[in-house]
Amino acid sequence: MKTMTITILSLTLVMLGFLQVQSMAMDDTMTKPGDMKMKSDGMEMKHDDMEPKSGEMQHDDMKMKSDGMDMKHEDMKMKHDDMKDDMKMKHDDMKKDEKMMEKGTMKKSQAIIPTDAELRDRLTPLQYKVTRKDGTEPAFNNTYWNNHEAGIYVDIISGAALFSSTDKYESGTGWPSFTRPLNSDEIVEKEDRSFFAVRTEIRSKQADAHLGHVFTDGPAPTGLRYCMNSASLRFIPKDDLEKEGYTEYLALFK
User: In CATH, what class is 113-253?
Assistant: First the structure.
């Protein structure tokens, strides 16, 4: 009887233990799907978190690129505007120069020297030979050797005023001769050792044109003889000075 009782109690304990184990297993089963769902939800949340951030980053990046393109467009627009302004200024300057030339007030110091090819087309063969090849025209057979009209002589290329009829005299050499230049700043002296002699060559400063030579056998008050080539010069009569833009020299003939 005692043995039976112990056996029954043992079986009862075993059954209770089995029931407890089953209950725990059921709790785990009920709990795990929830956890898995939570974990799954967590992954979805993370994915959701990542997705908008990635989208936002791409959008921001595209916006930055768009802004960069806008900035480049603005930069190009500014450069285009600057070019237009620069062209307008140059055009205005050209129109101003044209008006000044029409009025005869443009300074000859602003002259633009033509290219060699342009000079070949514009000058006569003798003028080109004298001014660009240091040639010499024939004596007593040139344009101004015997000119006695009042006016000034300018550089055939640049138009710079070089000599005045008020300083011209008869040297008997057959070339136009002057006691001094009208504007000493417009001529350059160079040593010339050609033809087995040492002479002082006179060239125009702006155009670097050969004009002639200066000698120390001239009359008073300078004692100098500027012996020039007519081919290097252009004569402007006194009455045309204002029209030609040399108004400041009219005072020489009053």
Answer: mainly beta
